[in-house]
Amino acid sequence: MNNKIITLVTGANRGMGLELVKELSKKGQQIIMGSRDFNKGQAAAAGIENVDVVQLDVTDNQSVKSACKTITDKYGKLDILINNAGAIFDHWQKPSEISQDSLRADFDLNFFGLINLTQTFLPLLKQSKQAKIINISSMMGSMTEALNPESEVYRASAVGYQASKSALNMFTVQLAKELNKENFPITVNSIDPGMVATEFGGSTPEQSKEMGAKPIDFGVARTVELATNFDNKDTATFSNTHGPVAW
Ligand SMILES: NC(=O)c1ccc[n+]([C@@H]2O[C@H](COP(=O)([O-])OP(=O)(O)OC[C@H]3O[C@@H](n4cnc5c(N)ncnc54)[C@H](OP(=O)(O)O)[C@@H]3O)[C@@H](O)[C@H]2O)c1
């Protein structure tokens, strides 16, 4: 079992997380599906091979610790951590009016929760010969694209969500530099999946498609590429299927 790639995907009971579980399990990886509602995770995992489900609410420290203990006891290492769980709590609220509650909700999950989870799992990642941390970010977090009138995200306005993904990108860079400096064989990268037809933001996948969202397999393509290529030692990058994304 120890030779198998052990991969944890957070927020994996639906959307891109579930698609990542399906595609990476087909590639022979042992997947641990993090789901904040265990029963939803079990239902979603039905029929998929090489999958364990753990209850995992990224914003709940007890849940994060307990999931880490379960995985440590069973596998003793973690090769890939895909920080996929994420949500948007503010829509079109003016930056001059956005509530503190919305801002905090965005940051609690997409930034503070993600960092706490990553810190908790780092000792387990350090047991791997070559580990990867893949942070699912968004082009919505790119300052450069937010200022580019030609960009598909130029008109978006969700300052809490966008800032939480920009902040996540800085965590990617700084953690990558720290691990590299200390010679740990762990890469840390941010991915932009693009606008993808899931239930993200409360729309149905059909509604998202009508607005131009891409199919779900397109959304996970860059992550699958990175998660299956152990020759690629790039770290501190931000990319999508087209190549590098401007920070
Ligand atoms: N879809 C897009 O267009 C798009 C674009 C750019 C980036 N992204 C990013 O891609 C990632 C996946 O999004 P998606 O489109 O697949 O969205 P989705 O269909 O809404 O799925 C989000 C997943 O995150 C889980 N989640 C929410 N809060 C959580 C928490 N506190 N702890 C653990 N899990 C939690 C959800 O679980 P429940 O079922 O329990 O709610 C669900 O499994 C997110 O990080 C998102 O920001 C999406």
Topology (elements, then pairings):
Blueprint: E1 6-9, H1 15-26, E2 30-35, H2 38-45, E3 51-55, H3 61-75, E4 80-83, H4 100-125, E5 131-136, H5 143-146, H6 159-181, E6 186-191, H7 205-210, H8 216-228, E7 238-240, E8 243-244
Parallel strand pairs: 1-2, 1-4, 2-3, 4-5, 5-6, 6-7
Antiparallel strand pairs: 7-8
The protein binds NADP nicotinamide-adenine-dinucleotide phosphate.
NADP nicotinamide-adenine-dinucleotide phosphate binds at residues 10-11, 13-17, 36-37, 40, 56-59, 84-87, 109, 136, 138, 193, 195-196, 198-200, 213.
Protein name: Dehydrogenase
InterPro entries: Fungal_SecMetab_SDRs (IPR051468), NAD(P)-bd_dom_sf (IPR036291), SDR_fam (IPR002347)
GO biological process, one term: secondary metabolic process
Description:
With 247 residues, the protein is α/β, with parallel strands linked by helices. It has one domain: NAD(P)-binding Rossmann-like Domain (Rossmann fold), CATH 3.40.50.720. 43% of the residues lie in helices and 15% in strands. It has helices spanning 15-26, 38-45, 61-75, 100-125, 143-146, 159-181, 205-210, 216-228, and strands at 6-9, 30-35, 51-55, 80-83, 131-136, 186-191, 238-240, 243-244. It has an eight-stranded mixed β-sheet, sandwiched between helices. Helix 2 (38-45) links the parallel strand 2 (30-35) and strand 3 (51-55). Helix 1 packs across helix 8, helix 3 packs parallel to helix 4 (100-125) and helix 4 (100-125) packs parallel to helix 6 (159-181). It is globular, with a radius of gyration of 17 Å. It starts with 5 loop residues before the first strand and ends with a strand. The mean pLDDT is 96. Residues 10-11, 13-17, 36-37, 40, 56-59, 84-87, 109, 136, 138, 193, 195-196, 198-200, 213 line the site of NADP nicotinamide-adenine-dinucleotide phosphate (NAP). NADP nicotinamide-adenine-dinucleotide phosphate is lined by residues 10-11, 13-17, 36-37, 40, 56-59, 84-87, 109, 136, 138, 193, 195-196, 198-200, 213. Belongs to the short-chain dehydrogenases/reductases (SDR) family. It comes from Companilactobacillus kimchiensis. One of its GO terms (biological process) is secondary metabolic process. InterPro entries: Fungal_SecMetab_SDRs, NAD(P)-bd_dom_sf, SDR_fam.
